[in-house]
Amino acid sequence: MKGRTKMSQTDRDAEFAAVALPGAVGRERPSAPSRFRQLPDTIQSGLAQYDTAETILAKNNGLGPGFNMMRHLLSLVILSHHCRVAVAGLFAGAAFVKKLDEPGMAVFVLKDPAAAAFDKMGGLTALSFSHLQATEIIQELLRPGLIALVGMFFALSGFLVTGSAIKNPDLKTFFINRVLRIVPALSVEVTLCALLVGPLLTQLPLSQYLSEYQFYRYFGNIVGHVTFELPGLFLHNPWPEMVNANLWTLPWELWCYVFAFALLFAHMISSETRKVRWITLLVGAALVAELLAYFIDPATFNVRSDSTRLAGWYLVFMFFFGMVFRLNARYVPIHWVIFAISAACYAGIMWLNVLLPLAGIFLTYCTVYIGMQSFKAFDRLFRQDLSYGIYLYGFPITQATIDISQRVLGPDHRLSLAVILPIVVVLTLGFASFSWNVIEKPALRLRRFYQRPA
């Protein structure tokens, strides 16, 4: 056609790249990779009308205002649950036997597996409600909450540890901080159990108690080599031989710190957008791999270790879910509707026993949501951080209280949870306060000698 110049290929490509969209006439459409890179900014602009985890943290000097309440509440609920089982006995009084292939671990199983009234691992769909009592049905409806307790602790830990690492990414600081937070108080608790509680309450002669290999092995708890038994201790308790059941989480917590240290060593824990994306993709890829493994072999890769807790390896996932939420805090809206949906999804997954690997994502959001709320009345009541002390001392105090009660009242006396629990709570809070003021707080003060200013 006359008057029209020939269009080069370059010009033609440029013309096709320009689109006439309503409100965007002549605007250049980004390529697919560009749109992917711009997606977080698009999400952030869409969330501008809501408070995000990042904005709430910024208003509270980088701290989640509700995490203090959550730590203590979770610790006290776990203490109460353990006390209930320790008073009533394992397996609701059904006959059990000890597994002898795990020395020092005080692991018991049902003597007759068929004696179980119903499969507590199968979810609500596996139950026959016509054969269950009302109390049993209520217990099964509440079971997702029981299973969530330790998982929420690990998600909370991942969130807080990551925030600390972002502020101060120095490797030496990270390592020493973790050691000072865990080892001093743990060392004192393990030593008190072995050198005070054991000699006072063991049913063996003191010379034999001190000469047993089990006595020396118990000190391995200080470095994460878990042992639950001390020679001759708590042999006739309803939950026999178990000195401190809470220590089962120690190895998994150490693995979380090892992986976090490796990421910090690789300079991957950072607020830089590129690194945040890589960590998010890595955790997402691990979750996809776990989903595939679960579908192939659900028994081996079951997220639930038993009817009361998540599998140890999945707790490591929970830690990294917390890490991902902290790294992406600016994209995490804090809204009660999302919290309600997440809680319902988590409970539904547990009740129906489907897609279990995804449960941790919803549980982590619930953890972060509660952590971003304010509980000023609770904070005025608990000005000290007693949660770690409750974790360390709650179970040994429970077992010692039951043991002494049986000796005073007689082995056939029926123990009452209404009497034992208040005694245990008061004693545990007292020891936790001792641990915080005498051991933990002074140990944490040592940080001023090596920690760089954030």
UniProtKB/TrEMBL annotation:
Pfam families: Acyl_transf_3. Keywords: Acyltransferase, Membrane, Transferase, Transmembrane, Transmembrane helix. The keyword Nucleotide-binding does not apply. The keyword Transmembrane applies. GO terms for molecular function: acyltransferase activity. It comes from the Bacteria. The chain crosses the membrane at residues 73-97, 146-166, 178-201, 247-266, 278-296, 311-327, 358-378, 415-439. Residues 150-432 form the Acyltransferase domain. This is Acyltransferase.
